[in-house]
Amino acid sequence: MWQCPQCGRSFEKQEQAHYCTRPQTIDEYIARQDAAAQPRLREIRNILRSALPQAQERISWSMPTYWQGRNLIHFAASKKHLGLYPGGEATGVFAEELKHYDVSKGAIRLPYDQDLPEELITKIARWCLEAYGI
Ligand SMILES: [Zn+2]
User: Fold this and answer.
1) What's the 94 CA to ligand 1 centre distance in angstroms?
2) Per-residue pLDDT tens over the stretch 81-104
3) Structural domains in the chain?
């Protein structure tokens, strides 16, 4: 299995020739990830959509993004985890509640094999709206 670093699509053959385009929507982005990761990606998308009902969904920095006057929060699929990117200030504010997760400045790594902390993600997303939204 080979994943194109440009567009994220997976192919049987290494360096498979293909019509390479970047995903334009969150649906396209999710559809291009490993089948095993897709349920969690849909789950976090639903959590963020409920937490940020006024925000626009777009792809920014090649990641699914919630935008309301500014980028509020991004998420992205990695091999073993789902990355949530609320910005460096947010990971500082929520450090205590995030202590059981693998966190670095601005990035929270949520393993696919664990339930998503829905309430905490909702709180962080709303905090981002307060802090960065217009
Ligand atoms: Zn490609």
Assistant:
1) 36
2) 999 999 999 999 999 999 999 999
3) 25-132 (3.90.1150.200)
**CB–CB of 91/106 below 8 Å?**
yes
Rounded to the nearest whole angstrom, what is the distance from the C-alpha of residue 123 to the centroid of ligand 1? Answer: 35
Residues comprising the chain, all counted = 134
Taking 80 as the threshold, does the pLDDT of residue 65 lie above it?
yes
20 CA to centre of ligand 1 in angstroms:
4
Cβ count near 13 (within 10 Å): 9
Tokens found for residue 81: 């985890």
CA distance 121 to 20: 32
Average pLDDT over residues 49-70: 96
38 alpha carbon – ligand 1 mean position (Å): 19
Q: What is the whole-number distance in angstroms between the Cα of residue 113 and the centre of ligand 1?
A: 27
Assign 63 a pLDDT band (cuts: 50, 70, 90): very high
pTM confidence score: 0.86
Ligand 1: distance of its center to the CA of 2 in Å?
10
